[in-house]
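Problem statement: downstream parser choked on a complex file, so we are re-checking the raw output for the pyridoxal-5'-phosphate run. The parser issue turned out to be on our end (a line-ending mismatch), but while we're here, posting the original submission so the record is complete.
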Amino acid sequence: MPIYVASGSDAIMVDVDGNQLIDLGSGIAVAGVGHGAPAITEAVSAQVARFTHTCFMVNPYEGYVAVCERLNALAPGDGPKKSALFNSGAEAVENAVKIARHVTGRQAVVVFDHAYHGRTNLTMALTAKTLPYRDGFGPFAPEVYRLPMSYPYRDPTGMTGEEAATRAIGQMERQVGATRVACMVIEPIQGEGGFVVPAPGFLPRLARWCRDHGALFVADEIQTGLCRTGTWFACEHEGVVPDLLTTAKALAGGFPLSAVTGRSDIMDSVHTGGIGGTYGGNPVACAAALAALRMMDDLDLVGAARQIGELMAGRLAALARNQACIGDVRGRGAMMGIELVRPGTCDPDPDLATQVVRACYEQGVVVLTCGSYGNVIRLLPPLVIEHALLAEGLDVLAECVEHSTRS
Ligand SMILES: *Cc1c(COP(=O)(O)O)cnc(C)c1O
């Protein structure tokens, strides 16, 4: 959309013409602590004045260690954990795969339909959707295998999570072989793929298979992690403890920072210098992350995400009752979407989704589309959004859905 942003405050963005926009997208789940948070500005300014770079592998500094310690404490699982920091989400996923291959001595990586893991060469191979992410950009990395996802709205009626997992595991054992799998990489709730929440039991069954067969279970929590779904990490909703966990987006209040967090025995298996990078864990980004993580604690953004979720779920369910074009309402906490279809069918209606999003922009509300079929409207408001403002944004969305279906 041709809207150039000049400034922002909490859940409001102001464009270069002075228009105020309600941001229900957070720059794709990044601005969890809101735009222009003073705590981030202060932490970053102070760090910029001290030093902006050393390369952690050359001369370490405390901010990097502090971010890792915080992530280790937050990540599910009781045992000792370690973290390594990088710049982007894709880089974190790539490194998780490198670590998994190194520690298992195996090569195969298993991913799922509708998955999104990034745009670098390896992560393009892990990502499911051809357009716009892969088309013309091959050849892709080998030893990547794709399995059917649990997608309750589109799976056979009544299919349980266990059954969907059995379907996926059967295909994997036939295609890949149980002893060749280094890791399974999965988003506990799919982001770009359409806010797909797998049926209960799916993730625990897959994690158990990994444990039983010496493969690593890698949770890509780049979009779902850090309070977004009403828990610190989305895999906690089903008590799943991943071997490795990737974070990025909301980690550093808008600064580029990502992490791999995992069991110490796994993280320590890689030789010194085997993973790293010039800018990974940049000191300014670490200062921003420490401020963002402190805000998540101090403002109880886990609780805030739950309250936002209740408000959105109620409003979207009411809208769906009146609008036959809404096939499904789903998500968790402050990560909810509506899947738009042709009334009376499950046929995706991406044109309607595009129309609704454009209409929302014209009314000053930022929402995003996603989904393998481009027909899901997703809501990812900043977790600091005031409820009255959120309700105002949802009113606009409702009006735009009603108006777009009528026209
Ligand atoms: C955004 C995203 C990525 C890629 O992150 P980048 O910082 O854009 O490289 C990977 N996985 C998931 C689940 C994401 O949402």
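For whoever reads this later: The first helix runs from residue 26 to 29.
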